[in-house]
Amino acid sequence: MVAQITLTGMVLSATPVGDYDKRLVILTRERGKITAFAKGARRPNSQYVAGSRPFSFGEFTLYQGREAYTLTGMNIKNYFEDMALNLDKVYYGMYFLELADYFGREGIDAKDMLNLLYASFMAINKEQIPYRLIRRIYELKIFTINGEYPDVFSCQGCGKAEELTHFSVSANGTLCQTCKDIKKDAVALNNSTIYTLQYIISAPIGKLYTFNVSEEVMTELSIVMSRWLAFHCDREFKSLELLEK
Ligand SMILES: [Zn+2]
């Protein structure tokens, strides 16, 4: 008999395969991003109908084949079905999944990435802070989890930790008033924006979606993160095009 395993995860994408099946990409806590076949998931009476959609979070029981996993059971804890009722939420949600897919790798522990996704969807559903702020927090934190985040705690020119006034993507972080001219792409940032970047990088996931920012900080945060993504990601995100329309 083939051994079965149960993994906790979230469905990132679902693609039709053959007449009745689906191929799921699942971000799992224990094994990172995996591909699993859900046999018969497109038959109306299938036990997998509801759970084999993006956003479904829960436990997936599978057996491991040579190339991929095959689903044998699921216990969905949260479908995030409210997300589907609002087009903005869907677009943000799809973008978050696409970014998680971009960073996801098989065979690595993805506990933090999964927790971040879950917390971000909860924040979108709660609607206590603007979606566009949730987006920027999510972007910076997913880079942080994956170790590709800027150094916003010291000047990339002289190393001092005070009077940081600028940010440069090509310098990989903040610059002080004296060093700002060493990089052409340096942008001036409000003190509060630098503090916000520092907070997002260092705060635990459970404390991320607990603050709001001024319009000025929001604009600067958007500039910094858009540039960071353009510089560090070697692909365009389809869901982002929809979002920005
Ligand atoms: Zn400096």
Quick structural gist:
This protein is α+β, with helices and mostly antiparallel strands.
What does this structure look like?
By secondary structure, the chain is of the alpha+beta class. It is 35% helix and 24% strand. It has two domains: 4-79, Beta Barrel (OB fold (Dihydrolipoamide Acetyltransferase, E2P)); 88-150 and 167-244, de novo design (two linked rop proteins), CATH 1.20.1440. The protein has six helices and eight strands. The strands form two sheets. The chain has a five-stranded mixed beta barrel. It is elongated, with a radius of gyration of 20 Å. 36% of the residues are buried. Zinc ion binds at residues 155, 157-158, 160, 175-176, 178-179.
| Terminus-to-terminus distance | 51 Å
What's the CATH topology name of the largest domain?
A: de novo design (two linked rop proteins)
Tell me the number of structural domains: 2
Helix content: 25-40%
Topology diagram in text:
Layout (H helix, E strand, L loop, with lengths): L3 E14 L3 E8 L3 E7 L18 E8 L4 E10 L8 H17 L7 H16 L4 H15 L18 E5 L4 E4 L10 E2 L2 H12 L12 H18 L5 H7 L1
Parallel strand pairs: 3-5
Antiparallel strand pairs: 1-2, 1-4, 2-3, 4-5, 6-7, 6-8
